[in-house]
Design a protein that fits this description.
- It comes from Neobacillus rhizophilus.
- Pfam families: FCD, GntR.
- One of its GO terms (molecular function) is DNA binding.
- This protein has 224 residues and is mainly alpha-helical.
- It folds into 2 domains: 63 residues, Arc Repressor Mutant, subunit A (Orthogonal Bundle), CATH 1.10.10.10; 144 residues, GntR ligand-binding domain-like (Four Helix Bundle (Hemerythrin (Met), subunit A), Up-down Bundle), CATH 1.20.120.
- 72% of the residues lie in helices and 4% in strands.
- A 3-stranded antiparallel beta sheet has the order 1-3-2.
- Helix 2 packs across helix 3 and helix 9 packs antiparallel against helix 10.
- The chain is globular and about 55 Å long.
- It starts with 12 loop residues before the first helix and ends with a helix.
């Protein structure tokens, strides 16, 4: 007799639209400061305005869209103060997470972290930028998950939209692929050594390096 696998429900329509708009922002189709219009989006997706409105509301909550006092919607435009504020939060939360992960991670979880590094290295060799970004995100997400602290996970979740946006920008720069992988390997080695302080120190160094590069990228964008 065949095993009965539960059917996967499709995502609600507004979430599909939300994800599509998000990908358009990350891929540069919608650029920082671009105005978005409910009616045009509804026409594009051949739907009513209701799911579009829900998608926009969710993206505003994530910080990827901005609504002004006149209820006009535009794509988030990164600024240096925002970047520094969010990276301060990241460093604080993720350094705590990596300390916990160094203590609590199982052998199977360590193997999963190592596999993510291997996948990242393969993506770099094949120059698959989207895959490199995905592996970068996955490595940090696993550290948060393996901390075993659901409250901490929830706090990071509130920043994830903009963090991912910054990751897409931060892939720019000289020798970025190798720099990112080197930082991740140093963090992983410290976790594997079960050395919480060293893991947190390496994560702070890696994230500060990311911040420095991102500031440079945004300064160049502002000059254009």
């Amino acid at each position: 007799m065949l095993e009965c696998n539960p059917l996967q429900k499709p995502l609600p329509y507004y979430q599909q639209i939300q994800q599509s708009i998000k990908e358009s922002i990350f891929n540069g189709i919608y650029k920082p400061g671009d105005r978005l219009y409910e009616a045009q989006i509804a026409t594009f997706y051949n739907t009513s305005r209701s799911p579009v409105r829900e998608a926009i509301r969710a993206l505003v909550m994530e910080g990827l869209l901005v609504m002004d006092q006149k209820s006009q919607i535009s794509v988030y435009k990164p600024n240096l103060q925002d970047v520094r504020d969010i990276y301060e939060c990241r460093i604080s939360l993720e350094s705590t997470a990596v300390e916990l992960t160094a203590v609590r991670a199982t052998e199977e979880q360590l193997q999963e972290l190592e596999k993510t590094l291997e996948d990242s290295e393969q993506a770099m060799k094949e120059v698959i930028t989207d895959r490199v970004i995905a592996c970068n995100a996955r490595f940090h997400e696993l550290i948060i998950q393996y901390s075993g602290n659901p409250r901490l996970m929830k706090l990071v979740e509130g920043l994830n939209g903009l963090i991912q946006y910054y990751r897409v920008l931060n892939i720019q720069g000289e020798n970025r692929f190798n720099t990112i992988l080197k930082g991740h390997r140093e963090i992983y080695d410290a976790i594997k050594e079960r050395n919480p302080k060293k893991a947190a120190d390496r994560l702070r160094e890696h994230t500060q390096e990311d911040l420095s590069n991102l500031v440079h990228v945004i300064e160049q964008l502002e000059e254009r």
